[in-house]
């Protein structure tokens, strides 16, 4: 099938940053000629990766429904299948290529089906070349900067029968009012900013999601108020690094002020991810102390406990600075649960470096942690760093770390024994459909028995047993 290349991803362009950036903001308007294109047709979105991708998929769903497509869970029934990809680790990419491969037969039986690839993998030069050369069943490739163009791209592919490639590697812009179909109706992600300028040496995100750019406080408050009025019980403010909110705006307010204003809208539960220790400040702690509806849960990625490795990662803080920050949070916000991200096996991580990480876990006694073995990302500075550490030793370190994380998670969860906790109900438990599940304010997963329970209810649950990563109980 013929190709139409509008733009291809370019790592050199994606690397560029401007000190004085003037981020264009526009308001999305649906082209009416596209609103009936999907009548009588169905779409399916497969989402990989982080919360930012979950939220982007809600926009893709909103755009497809604005074209009159209806959602389906069945691949065979879909007329449009979008895979929203993740590039944070190699295995995430291999999984996506496997999925695209599986669609080849389906496409053969349904040649008018449109298969689209979006997300961070589509922002990578090498990945798009592979899709272009080897996966001819893919009709549209678009990136993280032009999701709002999806309707036009689908029309183009449908009518021209060409494969369309449109991926921009640029600083990025902000497009407001893109229609979104929320995947659940009781809690919602709210983007406050996009992109990242931290350039941690192992991370592909600054190259796939562009420069840090903040939405206006007014647009964010309008979205939160709208969600509250629609009956949502919980919102989570979203950004690769929410603490940097507002630094690119010509205003004197930052994340602390935004958090306080969002909490004052009055929605039951306010959360936020992800925080970078480097940008953490007193205004945030003040907002978290002053507003009871900001949930007592903080995700504070560490990545490593070794100064040597933190420096090589370009994390911009030392182990001591991180410890001091945790001390401050424990002093000012004693009831907060703290979780983290840790990478083991960074290039040439020594036994001593790894022990520093274990010591930091002993110091912080986290409620939980997302732990990973370092995954080389082409184009990042760490990808060319010498590394003589065998993969087997890296895997071994991960096991040792996970065991320790499990012990502290269990220790922290034991505090909830015989306690009555508030749970926002997400639905039937994955483990047992006679029980329900949801999360406490500390973001603890609870499985519980109860009668007449509805998704979105906030119920009181008496805890009867505690596991490392979940609690059990019965509804009062
Ligand atoms: S802060 Fe670092 S790890 Fe997080 S998205 Fe930015 S570059 Fe990646």
Explain the layout of strands and helices:
Blueprint: E1 3-7, H1 11-15, E2 25-27, E3 42-47, H2 51-66, E4 70-71, E5 80-85, H3 90-109, E6 114-119, H4 125-134, E7 140-142, H5 150-160, E8 163-166, E9 174-176, E10 187-191, E11 193-194, H6 205-208, E12 213-214, H7 217-229, E13 234-238, H8 255-264, E14 269-273, H9 282-290, E15 297-299, H10 307-312, H11 319-332, E16 337-344, H12 351-364, E17 368-373, H13 391-414, E18 420-428, E19 436-439, E20 445-449, E21 458-466, E22 471-475
Parallel strand pairs: 1-8, 2-9, 3-4, 3-5, 5-6, 6-7, 7-8, 10-13, 13-14, 15-16, 16-17, 20-22
Antiparallel strand pairs: 11-12, 18-19, 18-21, 19-20, 21-22
Bound molecules: iron/sulfur cluster.
